[in-house]
Design a protein that fits this description.
By secondary structure, the chain is mostly helical. It contains six helices and no strands.
Length: 167
Amino acid sequence: MTLQIIVFIVIALFIGVCSVLSVTTSRILRAATYLLFVLFGTAAIYFQLNYAFLGAVQLLIYAGGITVLYVFSILLTSAQGDKAEKLKNSKVAAGFLSTLAGLGICLFVILKNDFIEPSFQPGELDVKTIGYTLMGMEKYQYVLPFEVISILLLACIVGGVMIARKR
């Protein structure tokens, strides 16, 4: 086992534990904090794959901006010490069955397909190429998804303000 595999296993376990804690904690602010740790772990995996630009974007946009937005919306809309309501047994059973179904589908896809080695060497593109690809309007360029995401983020901010104003 190489050091790179050991580091990947540690990061994957960290992400898995924080993900479970994020969805099982009864405190809403703690759930947002665990989500922040999951996003940091995801950025660590990007850095381990030598995708420094993608890791930096993960840290700046998701771990920074989105988590701050979550925390502010939680603090604006919830009372001090707010806890999540207890789930009924039927909802817990439905969540468990959904988890098992998702795990079954993932295992089926992994075991059914023959994955081939990629023909390209992993490495990072220069920022100029990434910029042209993000802002280009030709095939396999991403100006439309970029604009859709910006509208989605704007809708989230407006929704948070509207929820906060109702009080």
